[in-house]
Structures are given as structure tokens and as C-alpha cells.
Amino acid sequence: MARTILVTGITGFIAKRIAYDLLAQGEKVRGTLRKASRGEEVKAALRDLGPEALERLSFVEADLTADEGWDAAMTGVDAVIHTASPFPLSKPKNEAEVIQPAVEGTKRVLSAAQAAGVTRVIQTSSMEAVMHGVTSDPITEADWSNPRAPTCSAYTRSKIFAEEAAWEFIEDHHEMQLTVINPGLVCGTPMDRHTGSSVAVIERLMAGKDPMAPEFDIPVVDVADVAACHVAALDRSESIGRRYICAASFMSFLEMAKVLKAEFPDRKIPTRKAPNWIVSILALFDEQIALIKPMLGMTMRLSNEAATRDLGVEFVPAAEAVRRTGHFIAQK
């Protein structure tokens, strides 16, 4: 018998692929939307599954910043995949504008699930909550970002504190069964043109907006693997109470640029390394660049062994994930 899985923030880049995979294996999917009108966007993205699958897709209007709608969202649900997270459209005046909604939203979803008797929750966190200020080699799930690390932005801190809030909730409600997935920069092929900030990173390289690329490492993962980790966790009891690094490997911006240039030689994609001294000067005037300055020249490694062992996911190589995003952008 088909289960009903609630997917929060179903319009998201990751969430749409999760919904696709769940429907493809015969589940019922209920998605939360901040605006009900965006349901048609989701249906259009999933239309290749056919009308029978789309009949198993429904929506409920609910916002992470308000209580309304969450009781209805949880009614009759077998499990929750919580992907939704507030993302600032512009730089906030203070960090609380980013951190508080993320933390309170996580608590709101978990509280609503617990009140409805829904005990199984898969939460999307981020490598942002794993890798900052960490010196482990390789980085593993035992690592937690230091919120005071010089590379931490307000967004990074929001991911750290939201995941911490989830684990604290579980400590107080032992009947709840939580698994956390920590993706890196999500590349691969999106379900539609409504993509997130990860794709924008590759888009910037493809557009050749910068004459050079800084050499700093970032973890990369294919969206198909991110969805696979979430879906597999639903049926893997060994994943309960665990967090999982969800990335193929670290890859530098310069390496990404070279992969894309080899695939699209006619595009003005930067393949020269931006000297560290130039990046350091730019960091004086650009807060985003200032965040990457401490990472320049650092070589980082990660272990995804736990996700492969417990969730059965063999990760697409980072370079291939980047290439897939490049081809998606080239077809726009």
C-alpha cells in the first residue's frame, strides 16, 4: 500500500527531484507551498511521470514562519522529508533575520509532526553545517562546523543552528526518528528552470563573468544522489539517529571552470587562477569574497562512506555533476 510522504518546500530544486523519485516508486506525495498557485509549476516539472502519478500528488499551503496549515499538512502522513529552509533574497540587516526563521521553522515542522503522531523525519541540512573551521582529513559526519569560523556566513550559521535544533528536539522526544542529509553544492540536471543558488554558481562560470577563477574547494554532489539519499533513508532503519555527508568530493572553482571549458570550448569560461593576492584585495570590498579568503589554497577531502554503506548510494563523480549542470544551462 502506498505511503503518504510530506515533502516540505516542494518547489525547491532538491525537493522536486525527491517528489519525482517518490512518485516513481508508487508513493503518495503531499507538498507544502508558501503560495498554492505554485502547485502548477511542480506538476509541470513532474509531468513526465504521467497522469496516474500526478493523481498521487497533492499540496497544502504552509509557511515555515507561521503555524497555519501545518496541522492539515501532517494529517494522514506516514513520514516527513523536510527540505524547506528560508533563504534570504538580499543581504539581511542582521543575522537573526536568516537564522531565526530557519531554526523556528525546523522546530515548527518537528512539533507538528510529533503532535500528529508522525515519528519518521528526514531533514535536509547542508555541508555548511559540517565543514567550516574543521581540520579533519577526511571530513566525516562526526565533524560540526564552528559557527565562529571566519568562513561562516549568516546562512551557514542558520544551517548549523537549524540542524542542532532538530537533534535537540529528538533528545526531548525519544519516539521521533530523525535522519539528516548534508548535501554539498548541488549540481546535476534540474527538473525545471526554477533552480537554486547552486546552479547559479555554475551559470556564473558558464557566462564568463569573471576573468579568473579562485582556487578554493567546495563539496559537489549531483541532485539525483541527494534525492536518492533522502528516499533511501525512509526504509533504512540503520539511518535513524544519524547524519550523512552527501557529496561526491571536494572540487575547486578552478577545476569546475576547466571541466566546463573542456566541455564547452566556445564559451568564455575562465581557466586562469585568480592570484590569492588579488582575491585578498577584493575581499576588502566584498563580504562574500572575504568569506572564501581563509579557504584559498586549502585542499579538503571528505568521506561519503557512511551514505554509500547505509543508504546504498554510489555518488556520481563531481566533475560529471558539474558537466550535467553545464549542459542544462547551455540548453536554456
TrEMBL record:
Protein's UniProt keywords contain Oxidoreductase: yes
Domain NAD-dependent epimerase/dehydratase: 5-243
Oxidoreductase in keyword set: yes
Annotated keywords: Oxidoreductase
Domain of life: Bacteria
InterPro entries, A to Z: Epimerase_deHydtase (IPR001509), NAD(P)-bd_dom_sf (IPR036291), NAD(P)_dehydrat-like (IPR050425)
Pfam families: Epimerase
Coiled-coil features, chain-numbered ranges: none
Similarity section: Belongs to the NAD(P)-dependent epimerase/dehydratase family. Dihydroflavonol-4-reductase subfamily.
Name of this protein: NAD-dependent epimerase/dehydratase domain-containing protein
Species in which this protein is naturally found: Thioclava nitratireducens
